[in-house]
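Changelog note: in this version the structure field was regenerated for every chain. One regenerated record is shown below for reference.
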Amino acid sequence: MLEGRDAEFWEGAGLTKLDDASLISSLDSQDQFGMVADLPEQVLRAYAAAGDVDIGGFDQVTGIAVAGMGGSAIGGDVIAVSYEDRLEYPMVTVRGYRLPGWIDDRTLVFVVSYSGNTEETISCLEDALNRGCRVICVATGGAIGRAAGEREIPLIVVPANLQPRAAMGWLSVPVAACLEKLGLLNDVERDADETAAVLGQLRDLYGPENPAAGNPAKLLAKELENRIPVIYGAELTATAAYRWKCQINENSKAMAFAHEFPELNHNEVVGWERPPERLGDYRVVYLKDGQSHSQNHKRMDITADLLETFVGGIREYVTSGKSRLARILSSTYLGDYVSLYLALLYGIDPSPVERIENLKKRLA
């Protein structure tokens, strides 16, 4: 809670406007706040939906790939890092028009596109079918949905009333649920239940109804206003850091950057010197996980000491939950809310992504 001079500072800086419900209703045209708030229930519905689809049997699977772009691809990253300690085979996310050369008829390929019309992902679907891959589709419909129906490919149908970037549960959990059904993973249902419970608790903390003085998401959004966020993670939270960057880009219509430990200690850490007159405009956000390698914890602490005299501030947030799925989604969940509050502070609607739509039209 904020008290004394801190409270006076934040009130003077306009933080209290984030407690104004009318601000959300006036700017959030597609109810992204409602979509984000629904994530705990979305995780459970997505798991159940995968269970209702007959995906058949897949013998001799030796590799797993998730083909997708943007919000439809990050789900593959989330599942890969959540279960990398349990999977017996490599799992990769493919962002592009072609599958890697090693993918063959023993590879299970998830084709994930919220709209079902993403041209890169459609290209990967054709590539996978030509190579004789086992394929499972996840989409609202579109061209991928039609192809799944025509070629008798298992299709997990995603609700069509969401923003793709607000469909994290639908675009991630079914992948893990299918792997569970195929005997390639276990205890996914348990993880989904725990994740939903953890996210439900965080929703009470981060949601609009919780006043700014005790709301970490609102407080951080205010600190990031008119600043350039740099999000750092390690291992599990490296994927979360990238998700934060993308959410701030799309929802807040603002620049943000992400990197991961230990790699950034071999390059980016040297760059925090110039231009010296601009470095104060940056804010570093650490996404920590209690089960990261001890050397990564040490690296994060030492790096913070090295940067504190250069950057405008460093903030740390720790994952919640026991399972890896709960911990990573608890970390991304904070970023979802921060990006929406930052949009409100900028006075913009978080939903439209006009440049992306314009680019698609010019490519067509």
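Spot check on this record: The chain has a mean pLDDT of 94. Residues 20 and 208 are 9 Å apart (CA to CA).
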